[in-house]
C-alpha cells in the first residue's frame, strides 16, 4: 500500500478512537437512562397499586361498618388480597393493549388472578390452599 495512506491512517486513528469512545459512552448512557426510566415506572406503578389496594380495603371496611349498622354481616377481603389484586390488575393494564384484548386472554388472566388470590385468602384464614 501507499505510504501516504499509512501516514493518513496514523493521523486519523486518534480521531477515530475518540469518536468511537464518545459513541460508546453515549450509547451506554442511553441504555442506563432507559433502564432507570423503566425501574422508576415499575416503582411508581407499584406505589400506585399499593395505595389503590389500601384505599379499596378502607372502602370495604367502611362498607362493612355501614352494613353492620343495618344488621347485616359482610365478609371483606384482607388488606393483602386488596393490595395484590390492585397490583395484579395494574400490571395487566400496563402490559396489554386494551383495544386488542380477546375473551380467551381476559378469561385466562382472571382465572390466574383468582387462583393467586385464593391462596392469599387461604393463608389469611390459615387453611391449606387447593393446589389444583
Describe this entry's structure for a reader.
The chain is mostly helical. The chain has one domain (3-124). It is built from 3 helices and no strands. Helix 1 (3-69) packs across helix 2. It is elongated and about 100 Å long. It starts with a helix and ends in an 8-residue tail after the last helix.
Instruction: Note the main sheet.
Output: none
Q: Specify the number of helices.
A: 3
Task: Give the low-confidence spans.
Answer: none
Radius of gyration based on Cα positions: 28 Å
Q: H/E element string?
A: HHH
Number of domains: 1
Globular, elongated, flat, extended or rod-shaped: what is the shape?
A: elongated
Percent in strands:
under 5%
What is the arithmetic mean of pLDDT? 86
**N/C terminus separation:** 74 Å
Class from secondary-structure proportions: mainly alpha
Helix content: over 70%
Total beta-strand segments: 0
Compose a concise summary of this entry.
With 132 residues, this protein is mainly α.
Blueprint of the fold:
Layout: H1 3-69, H2 79-95, H3 103-124
Helix pairs in contact: 1-2, 2-3
Features:
single chain; 132 residues; mainly alpha; 3 helices; elongated
Amino acid at each position: 500500500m501507499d505510504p501516504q495512506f499509512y501516514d493518513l491512517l496514523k493521523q486519523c486513528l486518534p480521531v477515530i478512537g475518540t469518536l468511537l469512545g464518545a459513541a460508546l459512552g453515549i450509547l451506554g448512557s442511553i441504555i442506563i437512562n432507559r433502564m432507570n426510566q423503566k425501574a422508576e415506572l415499575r416503582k411508581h406503578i407499584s406505589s400506585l397499586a399499593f395505595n389503590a389496594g389500601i384505599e379499596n380495603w378502607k372502602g370495604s371496611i367502611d362498607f362493612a361498618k355501614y352494613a353492620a349498622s343495618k344488621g347485616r354481616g359482610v365478609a371483606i377481603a384482607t388488606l393483602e388480597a386488596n393490595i395484590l389484586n390492585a397490583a395484579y390488575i395494574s400490571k395487566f393494564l400496563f402490559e396489554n393493549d386494551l383495544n386488542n384484548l380477546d375473551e380467551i386472554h381476559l378469561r385466562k388472566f382472571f382465572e390466574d388472578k383468582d387462583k393467586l388470590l385464593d391462596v392469599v385468602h387461604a393463608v389469611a384464614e390459615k387453611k391449606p390452599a387447593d393446589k389444583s
